[in-house]
Amino acid sequence: MLSTLKQWINANRHARTRIDTDNLPTPKSAGEQNLFNSRLIVLDLETTGLNTAKDEVIAIGAVAIEKGAIHLDDQFDLILRRPELDIRETVLIHGIGPEALTQGQETKEALLRLLEWMNGDPILAYHAAFDKRFLERTLKAQLGYSLSHAWMDVAELLPAFFPKADPKGRGLDHWSDFFGLEVSERHHAAADAMVTAELTLIALNSAKKANVKTLKDLYQKLRYQRRLQKMKRF
User: Fold this and answer.
1) How far apart are the C-alpha atoms of 188 and 194, rounded to whole Å?
2) 221-229 contacts: CB < 8 A, separation 24 or more?
3) What is the pLDDT of residues 111-166, one digit of tens each?
4) Which stretch of DSSP H or E encloses residue 158?
5) C-alpha to C-alpha distance for 118 and 112, rounded to whole angstroms
6) Rounded-to-integer distance, Cα 202 and Cα 37, Å
């Protein structure tokens, strides 16, 4: 299937033709699938800035979780080929310079590979709304792809199962320090995805003890957590 997608890229490299989404895996909903046995995608993006309307994705890091483990042989780590982008304001944060963007993976092919690799599985990210908006806009702009995936926010997952925890802040670093996790390199998509996956496993282990058995149960737990947070504002 990947060879077919590559042929599509070559045929449409300079065109604005929409991709046939029938050739790609169908996104899975968060239903009655067993949570422990489900393959979950933990994803992180590096971008040229924080403005989801005008900034661009330049790197994608992701790792799969399944059966209570992070599978190191099931990862995704790519810098996109975007030599036209101005990264002067953010290069000191993510460390991705002009040379890396010149030598990166061709953007359409990278995105197609990502969709194939994710296989429609639910996606988790830290402050997921940010990654969701960027990824969906990029997929739409580059591939004409607009199917919705199931997303969950690890920043909501952790306080939902550790309501009495005091991580001294709401950031990824705060929770990593709270649980004593070692972060190899911050603002690197693959490294951030890995530490987010470790935090996700901690939360899922607590979910299992709380009798959260399915993806639907987990989704409902997060919806309840959001309602609690809204109530605390009043």
Assistant:
1) 10
2) 221/160, 221/161, 222/152, 222/153, 222/156, 222/157, 222/160, 224/160, 225/156, 225/159, 225/160, 226/156
3) 999 999 999 999 999 999 999 999 999 999 999 999 999 999 999 999 999 999 99
4) helix 154-161
5) 10
6) 16
Beta strands in the chain (DSSP E): 40-47, 57-66, 69-81, 105-106, 123-125, 151-153
User: What are the Cα distances from residue 61, in Å, to 44, 76, 158?
Assistant: 5, 6, 21
Confidence of residue 91 (pLDDT cuts 50, 70, 90): low
Between residues 216 and 96, which one has the greater pLDDT? Answer: 216
Token code pair at residue 62:
């992701």
**Cα gap 79→86, rounded to integer Å:** 15
Within a 13 Å sphere around the CA of 15, how many CA atoms are in the beta-carbon half?
A: 8
CA–CA separation, 57 and 68 (whole Å):
30
Q: What backbone phi and psi angles, to 5 degrees, belong to 99? A: -65, -40
Cβ(77)–Cβ(189) below 8 Å: yes
CA pair distance 161, 181, nearest whole angstrom: 18
Residue type, 89: E
Asked if residue 77 lies in contact with residue 105, where contact means CB atoms within 8 angstroms, the answer is: no
Strands 105-106, 123-125: parallel, antiparallel or unpaired by DSSP? Answer: unpaired
Q: Residues near 199 by Cβ (< 8 Å), separated by ≥ 6?
A: 126, 154, 158, 172, 175, 176, 179, 181
